[in-house]
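User: I'm putting together a small comparison set for a docking exercise, and I want a reference complex before I start. The sequence is below, and the ligand is zinc ion. Could you produce the 3D structure with the ligand included, as structure tokens?
Assistant: Of course. I'll restate your input first, then give the structure tokens for the complex.
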Amino acid sequence: MEFIIKGGTIITSTSSYAADVYVKDGKIAAIGKNLPDDGIKIIDASGKYILPGAIDAHTHLEFPFNGTMSADDYFAGTRAAACGGVTTVFDFVTQKKGQGIREAVKPRNDLCAPKACVDYSFHVALTDLTDDVLEEFSTAADAGLPSYKLFMVYKKDGLMMNDADIYKALQRSKETGTLIAVHAENPDVIDLNIDKFKKEGKLSPWYHYLSRPEAVEAEADIRAIHWAKTLDAPLYIVHLANAQGMQAVKDAVNEGYEIYAETCPQYLNFTSDVYKREDGRNFVCSPPIKGKESQIALWQGIEEGYIDTVATDHCPFKQEQKDWGKDDFTKIPNGCMGVENLYPYMLSQANKGIISFQKAVELCAENPARIFGCTEKGAVEVGKDADIAIYDPNIDFTITNAKMHSDCDYTIWEGTKLQGYITATYVRGQQVFKDGKFIGEAGFGKFIKCQPRPIA
Ligand code: URP
Ligand code: ZN
Ligand code: ZN
Ligand code: ZN
């Protein structure tokens, strides 16, 4: 298989330039002006941008959560990814009590492999940090699984990990070249607030936000950063959504610590006012979407380089599932959709002049590839996988659920107007999306072994 993309402008995190891209056997084989094209299929990208496929570093497909299951299975979720220019997703595997790391991943990989339409890897959400599991960090990392998420919240006998466990995991990560990610919120304060609101009969989605407002997230960010600093261990904060936490990341980075911050499009585009809407329950996720001040701080963090990645936390629940909590926010399954919206949204922000196209590529492709050791991906460069999105900056696109490719029956992005849109997506040279239509195949996506970090 070979083809040449001609007439387009390549975007990297540092530059943009006109050149042809020659793809052969799934790899980017050459880049240059006027590459020879005799007998080779030509893709005309005149007036368009040639971008690395996005890497969504945070999805929850077929995710069993609080007694239910997220709406997109590995097929529907990766189909939606393909149609949004995402060529790799990092999905979360939850370790069951007593399981080893690779033991937890095996059945999830078996489930994912026949359904995946784009490439994928896993972060393992640890719930049982035994000595054996700590020991396994190094062998799991060598097997391509060097990143683990620890939840500071949710059920105390379930997903949640205690402070000592998180501390131990950070300590071990340093010795093994692995990376610890945290979901940072304070569970005890959340429980206290929920109990109070329940007693007062305050059960609308607005109280989901008020039960875990800015300070509840910030305190946990600061705590996790403090441990990472004490141990001089790298730390990745997932779905950062508040201004004070953002400031704590900035301070730590400026002191020389390796603290990475991820935020999500829902925090960049919406404010907590959505929880006052009639459909407020559809926006319920944790951490909740915060106020305007936090939104501004996150955009500033992007501009100044303290936000490293934008990923989606794609975890949709169908309307019927969200409706369980119509009259009681504590019964609303937590999570929002976004895998198909990530790249188009960030690129539209670039097209509107809010950020640069280079920044969008850095946040959505290059940085996640670098941070998670996904060395074959993340850039339009010779030798990398031919994971490519072609973007037409002149299309006006209004998001409606009918145009989306998730299995969910609504989208929180309904009516959002975007400037420009993806017209084609290639995964390892195989086209999976063309002019609004999914043309990929279940089972084409393959597991990507990530590289551990160099050990200091
Ligand atoms: O509300 C969310 N974010 N649901 C998915 C699980 C998580 O915390 O990432
Ligand atoms: Zn989380
Ligand atoms: Zn950073
Ligand atoms: Zn998540």
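The pocket of zinc ion (ligand 4) is lined by residues 58, 60, 313, 315 (CB under 6 Å). DSSP finds 13 helices and 21 strands in the chain.
User: Thanks, that's exactly what I needed.
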